[in-house]
């Protein structure tokens, strides 16, 4: 799901990646909104709040909005930088560091009542940083095919592609469009499901609800690691059997 890149990546790898990380994003977004009263996956909204702050001469709001945008940007920068650095040695695990950082950041916010006494500004910055990392990570891995932290572009692309299906008649073109639309539906559905689950559980668990995306990411890393070990084991078995046949 994470380790395949470029030509080794298939459409179904992107579908699984989109389903997982869009659900994570949806959960983080609703928990950030309910607990911190801030958008954690929507940079566009913070630009609107910045403009509102200037208009109302509420410079605290304007400064906070700029800070949130900056942290989202820094998250994207850090994710790509760590992937570039680690891919030189072990390309299969270039995703490990940004995902590990995402897990740590979400866990810190989840237990922030023990660490930061629920100071909203730094917690919001951490979540914006986390979502910036995730957006850069999934964009890098999928070759800019999948983005999971905002829906505006997805609905735009899906509207265009559904319209194109009315005019494109070749089977190859229609097949490509159907796959693209299905991928958009998966992302939107994952974001929606994550939001609903997060909202329902937030009543009881508040910021601890973020432990759900933490658990999902840990399981995803474990699954990818196990799958890689299985492929290595299968290659060794084939190599041993080939050597035996050569000796015979």
Explained architecture:
The chain is an all-alpha fold. 79% of the residues lie in helices and 0% in strands. The chain has one domain: Growth Hormone, Chain: A (Up-down Bundle). Helix 3 (59-87) packs parallel to helix 6, helix 4 runs antiparallel to helix 6 (120-142) and helix 7 (152-165) packs antiparallel against helix 8. The model has no long low-confidence stretch (mean pLDDT 87).
Topology overview:
Elements: H1 11-36, H2 43-55, H3 59-87, H4 96-110, H5 112-115, H6 120-142, H7 152-165, H8 171-205, H9 211-247
Helix pairs in contact: 1-6, 1-8, 1-9, 2-3, 3-6, 4-6, 4-9, 7-8
Largest sheet: none
Shape: globular
SSE class: mainly alpha
CATH topology term? Growth Hormone, Chain: A
So, CATH architecture? Answer: Up-down Bundle
Number of helices: 9
**Share in β-strands:** under 5%
Determine and state the CATH class.
Mainly Alpha
N- and C-termini, Cα separation: 39 Å
Give me the count of strands.
Answer: 0
- Gyration radius (Cα, Å) is 21 Å
Helix content: over 70%
Summed over residues and divided by their number, the pLDDT gives a mean of 87
Low-confidence stretches: none
User: What's the structural domain tally?
Assistant: 1
What is the H/E order? HHHHHHHHH
Give the gist of this structure.
It comes from Sphingobacterium chuzhouense. This protein has helices at residues 11-36, 43-55, 59-87, 96-110, 112-115, 120-142, 152-165, 171-205, 211-247.
Name its key features.
single chain; 248 residues; mainly alpha; Growth Hormone, Chain: A; DUF1275; membrane; transmembrane helix; transmembrane
């Amino acid at each position: 799901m994470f380790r395949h890149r470029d030509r080794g990546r298939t459409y179904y790898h992107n579908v699984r990646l989109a389903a997982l990380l869009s659900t994570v994003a949806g959960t983080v977004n609703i928990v950030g909104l309910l607990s911190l009263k801030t958008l954690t996956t929507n940079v566009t909204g913070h630009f609107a709040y910045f403009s509102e702050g200037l208009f109302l001469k509420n410079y605290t709001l304007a400064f906070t909005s700029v800070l949130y945008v900056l942290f989202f940007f820094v998250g994207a920068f850090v994710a790509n930088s760590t992937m570039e650095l680690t891919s030189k040695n072990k390309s299969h695990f270039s995703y490990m560091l940004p995902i590990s950082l995402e897990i740590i950041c979400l866990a810190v916010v989840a237990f922030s009542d023990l660490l930061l006494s629920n100071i909203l500004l730094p917690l919001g910055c951490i979540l914006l940083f986390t979502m910036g990392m995730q957006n850069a990570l999934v964009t890098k891995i999928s070759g800019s095919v999948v983005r999971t932290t905002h829906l505006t572009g997805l609905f735009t692309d899906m509207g265009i592609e559904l319209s194109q299906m009315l005019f494109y008649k070749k089977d190859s073109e229609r097949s490509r469009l159907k796959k693209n639309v299905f991928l958009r539906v998966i992302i939107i559905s994952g974001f929606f499901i994550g939001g609903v689950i997060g909202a329902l559980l937030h009543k009881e668990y508040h910021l601890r609800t973020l432990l759900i995306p933490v658990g999902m990411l840990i399981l995803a890393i474990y699954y990818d690691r196990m799958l890689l070990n299985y492929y290595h084991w299968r290659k060794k078995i084939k190599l041993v059997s080939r050597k035996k046949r050569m000796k015979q």
